[in-house]
Amino acid sequence: MVHEQLNAYQRVQQANLSGRELEAMAFTRAALKLEDAKALADQPAEFAKAVRFNHLLWTIIQADIVEPQNQLPPELKANIMSLSIFVDKQTSKVLRTRDAADLDTLININRNLAAGLRTTTDSAAVG
Fold it and tell me: pTM of the entire structure?
């Protein structure tokens, strides 16, 4: 299933949006779903659905990082993988506790990554 989703992700990535723009949109969407989940802590199935969407995004990122065709520098790949491992642990904690406050860490990571991807894209367009 993840392989199919990775393929779909890569097909869309090759469409009109640049990879960075698409990734920024995906991180933003995940952050918004997690924000919505804060109000759903009393609805376990809906809460888990939002959290699992974020987990799926990070699983796709992990799969992409280990692909031999991925041309990111090794140090950046290692940093992204370390962050994704932290996200996995935080996701497990959130699913276990269903504490809406624990979502803030995941939301902030996604928003900061989206902002960084957009800044890099904007800088590349100017230069």
Answer: 0.78
